[in-house]
Amino acid sequence: MITHPDKVLFPDAGITKGDLASYYEDVAAVMLPHLRGRPLTMERYPAGIGGQGFWQKDVSRGFPAWLTRVNVRKKGGGIVHYPIANDRRALQWMSNQNAITHHVWTSRTPRLDYPDICVFDLDPSTDDGDAVRTAALALRDLLGELGLTSWIKTSGSKGFHIIVPVDGRAPVDSVVSFADAVARVFVSRAPDTLTLEFSKADRGGRIYVDTGRNTQGATFAAAYTVRARPGAPVSAPCTWDEVEAARVHPRSFTVENMRARLKDVGDLWAGMRRQAKSLARPTAKLRRLVSMDGRVEAHGSGRR
User: Which of 115, 157, 170, 211 could serve as 302's disulfide partner, Cβ 3.0–4.6 Å?
Assistant: First the structure.
């Protein structure tokens, strides 16, 4: 049961807590396969997006007994009790906590040290749709050179998330190293428009190629999750053809139009897991690319 369903969470769009819960109920069938088994951090806004929000990854108190959790040991000691959204009840409980955005790991229980996806987050410094679209297509092509099929979704903000499904045999450190190496080659090919600089002040208007979503315990916005921004944008899968034809931009999809979108196209990521590949050959190809492209500068790690 959703308490205070009339509470307005998105004042500009008049979207209420009840509307948010209804959205998550309606998209649960396509969203849950991308959430199951993944430790989750809730981005909560008890007073709506105009008020103070916070991120919650530990659910030690006030949670229902049926809610699936996983206990993860922190580096400095102690345990984080992450919730996992394995079913509709979990999604609805999170909606009742005013959780607007679901941020998830790149790995699933019980193999949390072995990611099943690799994430590249293209974060532009400005709302330049043409530039970030060009960058996304170039990254797709680079990954294709390495023999990898990539998938894309809108961020619901200014950029795109590019996803590579992997077979879950490489440990997290290897996936991180691979992503960082890809990013270095990628940036070296277009240093005037791309950067690895974490600090916004140092980006010089360039697009930040963020690989930090792949580190242990890091998260990224889940597929079909709502972002806590005006208009209730949704981070949703799209096709490369849509991006190439400029039919989709980073905020194309919202709570209001997502249901119609799903009726038209369904879950565009439904076949992703069947395309998972080992990173062994792509890593070898990447080394050869580095030698062909010349010395690739290793400035910036994409993480702080």
Answer: 211
What DSSP assignment string belongs to 190-233? -TTTEE---SGGGSTTPEEEE-GGGSTT--EEPTTEEPSSTT-B
Give the pair of three-digit tokens for residue 85: 């959204």
Question: Predicted confidence band at 104 (pLDDT cuts at 50, 70, 90)?
Answer: very high
- 202-261: per-residue pLDDT in tens? 888 899 999 999 999 999 999 999 999 999 999 999 999 999 999 999 999 999 999 999
The answer to whether 251 and 156 have CB atoms below 8 angstroms apart is yes
201's tokens: 């002040």
Pairwise CA distance, residues 75 & 57, whole Å: 15
Angle between helices 129-145 and 172-189 (to 10 degrees): 120
Which tens digit of pLDDT belongs to each residue from 62-75? 899 999 999 999 88
CB-side exposure of 203: number of CA atoms within 13 Å?
Answer: 21
Contact 228, 49 (CB under 8 A): yes
- Enter the DSSP assignment of 296: P
Q: How many helices (H) and strands (E) does the chain have?
A: 7, 16
Alpha carbon 61 to its chain centroid, in Å, reads 27
In the beta sheet, which residues pair with residue 15?
10
